[in-house]
Design goal:
The chain is α/β, with parallel strands linked by helices. It has 7 helices and 11 strands.
């Protein structure tokens, strides 16, 4: 069971990479009794790639343990990945049942720190698909990817795909737990994102046209 969610942030992070999943997991917390996500950074204040400054909830120096760590991408991702502070943080956080979930170029943090390896499949922003990997993992072009070797490693494509991938993660994780209430449907409905209108009225065309990858495939619903 995921009880503690840490969403990483750093100087040069792409704002939407962390704010998209943050919004989705905040809705999960407020409307489907999920855990409240925590923004975690090397320091209390960080500057996004767009120049805007934000405050983290906690820093790496805190002794909190997370069950799910979301790793966003951005212009500063390679400096972040090579930082000794980042390495120490992941060394401290690692446990066999830890979920790692990267957004966009955040997958290169997994690569740099050898949190993935031969047999793992990952994805990233389309502009970086052909960037060489150090870990021996395989890069593929996909909206999202769950490692075929280790299904606790999730990666998603660029920027806005973090929203869809977060919904997919919630759908699959809570379904696996046998949760009675479909948490992903609740989040989509409250967030007016291809809302599951059967909860409130007959299905609308908007719901019927939702991307099928929200339901575990990579095609488009007709």
């Amino acid at each position: 069971m995921i009880k503690n969610i840490g969403i990483l942030a750093y100087d040069g992070v792409e704002a939407m990479d962390y704010q998209g999943p943050l919004a989705i997991f905040d809705l999960l917390a407020s409307d489907a009794q999920g855990p409240k996500p925590i923004i975690v950074s090397q320091k209390k204040e960080f500057t996004c790639s767009n120049g805007r400054k934000f405050q983290a909830d906690k820093t790496f120096s805190c002794e909190d343990s997370y069950d799910l760590i979301i790793i966003p991408g951005g212009k500063g991702v390679f400096d972040f990945a090579s930082s000794n502070e980042t390495k120490i943080f992941f060394d401290t956080q690692y446990k066999p049942d830890l979920y790692l979930f990267s957004i966009c170029t955040g997958s290169f943090v997994l690569d740099e720190l050898k949190l993935i390896g031969v047999g793992d499949t990952i994805t990233t922003h389309w502009e970086f698909i052909h960037r060489p990997l150090k870990s021996g993992a395989k890069m593929v072009s996909s909206p999202f990817e769950v490692s075929k070797k280790y299904n606790r490693i999730w990666t998603s494509g660029g920027i806005f795909s973090g929203i869809d991938s977060s919904l997919i993660f919630i759908e699959q994780h809570y379904h696996a737990l046998g949760t009675a209430q479909n948490s992903a449907e609740v989040v989509r409905t409250v967030g007016q994102y291809f809302p599951v209108t059967s909860h409130i009225s007959p299905k609308t065309q908007a719901q019927l046209n939702a991307p099928c990858y929200l339901f575990g495939t990579t095609s488009i619903c007709n």
